[in-house]
Amino acid sequence: MEKINLLEECKGAKSIVISGHIRPDGDCVSSCMALYLYLKKALLDAQVTVCLEEPSEVFGCIQDFDCIDSSFQVSAPDVFIALDCERSRLGAAGTLFDGAKKRINIDHHVSNVSGCGDVNYVVPGISSTAELVYDLMEKEYVDVEIAKAVYIGIIHDTGIFKYSNTSPKTLRIAAELIEYGFDFPAIIDETFYEKTYVQNQLLGRALLESIVFMHGKCIVSAINQKTLAFYNAKPKDLEGIVNQLRIIKGVECAIFLYETGSQEYKVSLRSCKLVDVSKVASFFGGGGHVRAAGCSMNGNFYDVINNISAQIARQLEAHGEA
Fold it and tell me: Domain holding 74: CATH number?
């Protein structure tokens, strides 16, 4: 898809709202904040606002993190920029998207090929939306705080350059970013590895209660509402569990789900080489990447797992691995 001139597209706008998907992850939060800092610097006459569901406090090291508006009580803007998702995943920000005079969509998800805006820059396969946002920035406006935010987004969606979406260009950009002089080892520890006591307790429960099936090629674990209440935990405390399940030896596909209501589950999927989990998630109305995707499903635990595993089995059979 052809690059867009972001500053030109926002030229003359008095109000700009930037938002991303529900349950914002590292790439979503960081790309939104990097773009916010950039537009605040480049477009002095524009009122720029980031509207997101309350993000994890591990991203508090990003400048102006406390300026994020989680109430969504702002007027429809001149320009709405949807990052890291398409319209259906904007949640409460969807109304602002619909009422905007111009809508811009920047994303890297394979499930959002054509984009949902009046202006689109969607490049599936790129490491992260943060990388795409950086690609669109005029470098004269980039400073250490913007570089740090972009870097955080990239490391979170590449698993610190471990996932297959890491390209030579991604690494060259990372090298460019750390030249700005922020403490990148500390950022990796604080935003990626560090967990609270409660988060580690939940991880331990999820690992202890996990179940392997399909001759050890799949693993599943679930956390119910009762457990979340016991630990006084929120969904953001469950981040990273599915990735830990995926790296168990012999596992090709990991499934982690947590209960959001009576017979309602949020499902996260991760795979190694053989399963395209974006296809599995899309089948159930979700989306994502080839190796990382998610969806919401209804039914009891066994219904959900039986339905998901049937889709995974089809792909494994195609590779002669079922």
Answer: 3.90.1640.10
